[in-house]
Amino acid sequence: MFEHLDAVFLARVQFAFTVSFHFIFPAFSIGLASYLMVLEGLWLKTGRGVYANLYRYWLKIFAVGFGMGVVSGIVLSYQFGTNWSEFSHKAGPVIGPLMGYEVITAFFLEAGFLGVMLFGINKVGKRLHFFATCMVALGTFVSAFWILSVNSWMQTPAGFEINAQGQFIVGSSWWDVIFNPSFPYRLVHTVTAAYLTTAFAVGGVGAWHLLKDRSNVGARKMFSMAMWMAVLVTPVQIFAGDLHGLNTLEHQPVKVLAMEGDFERSPNGAPLILFGLPDEEAATVHFKVAIPKLGSLILRHDPNAPLPGLEDYPREEWPPVAVVFWSFRIMVAIGFAMLGLGLWSLLARHRKRLYESRALHRAAVLMGPAGFVAVIAGWITTEVGRQPYTVYGLLKTAESASPLDAPAVAASLIAFIVVYSAVFGMGIYYLLRLMANPPHRGETTPPNVPSHAAGITPASSLEATDLNQDGGAHGKS
Q: What is the rounded distance in angstroms from the CA atom of residue 60 to the CA atom of residue 230?
């Protein structure tokens, strides 16, 4: 049944499927861990119970998402050995230690403090608990640091030598490997995307509950905080994306030309193609809508600057142009939609209608999952745009795969689809159920000391009971 299919193509589809499922959870965990750190810090600083209540509300959601991210990530490591053994053999001396550093730094840091964060909220001092939250947030960032360093090295390899066995080995300095040319740009762009993904998910949940009860203090606070993130961070992300694009043009010009749909060279300034239907066979974009000179203005900051075209490179070096072209536009469109929603919320805030504008709240609900779509579209742009290479310019994808038959890869792909759809489908359903529960409607201040400690007052005991009934971390979930 699968004999006519290409085993390398099936292996690529399998990795793409599993990593797409995985990617949405770390993107959420990175942002949500930092959000929890901010919430707990604000509670300790202000003493306002709304921050403590929101912390407990999102803590359960973080725990489920974090666990799903860990489980889905384990599979990826095995695939390096099963489907991509040649890549592991040749690139392992470089990427293996980097991924090992991620485990012994980030994962151990997260695992060491996650238990205190999840179960110690009423068992340890508030400052120690806040420290645990900070360490988990730091761990998620450190994890992103190492994984993105690995990915960036595959995009812009540096600091390596090739030994007699054809393996990539580290040259004179690990510094050149870790901080390869695209890594700083990719780190900023990806981590900022994770923060925005979380902000719009939080904003969507807050807007959902405001549509039901606009007096809910917790919903008002989370929506307000999310909209501030949209206003302040989205422009930063657009600027970071522009810098990342310039870096990509320098080191991976074919990828950028595929993103732009520039088949023909433009000696007097390239247009910006907004929409169209790329035809790789005919090397053109049909029915294109373009703005003259704007492409050169964006990529070279000069409207008359010449730009090459895909025709200047061998066809075997081209990535799948249509996929890269459209995934890039989806990512950019969502970015500008985020900016638009942020500016809309700023206007509503100025008019003192941030919590009354039902149209704004509906738009925020619709934009709630937009960040997840954007990060997947960005990942597709980055990874498909790197083709036909795994290590750009040096090791082709066809040379990286294991010597497997297509039916074997197809069988495991089908198994992954069935298991992932069932397991993670139920997990996502449970997350949505948690988000559908409204946050605490009041602003009761939780106790500042463990409930078993001496000196607790009757009032604080009542407040602790109230928080447990609302689904606190130490109550029933």
A: 24
Task: Give the pLDDT mean for 65-77.
Answer: 86
Of the two residues 453 and 347, the one the predictor is more confident about is: 347
**Among 403, 359, 391, which Cα is nearest to 85's?**
403
Predicted model pTM = 0.88
How distant, in Å, are the alpha carbons of 46, 170, 205, 383 from that of 74?
A: 40, 26, 29, 20
CA-to-CA distance for 79 and 143, rounded, in angstroms?
A: 19
What span, in angstroms and rounded, lies between the C-alpha atoms of 81 and 400?
Answer: 11
Q: Which positions ≥6 away from 241 have C-beta within 8 Å?
A: 189, 332, 335
Single-letter residue type at 181: P
| Token pair in block for residue 351 | 């008019």
Exposure pattern of 34-67 as b/e (b: 16+ CB <10 Å)?
Answer: bbbbebbebbeeeeebbbbbbbbbbbbbbbbbbe
Say if strands 160-162 and 395-396 run parallel, antiparallel, or are unpaired.
unpaired
Residue 259 to residue 251: CA distance in whole angstroms: 14
As a residue count, the chain comes to 477
240 near 186, Cβ under 8 Å? no
Structure tokens, 468: 């447990």
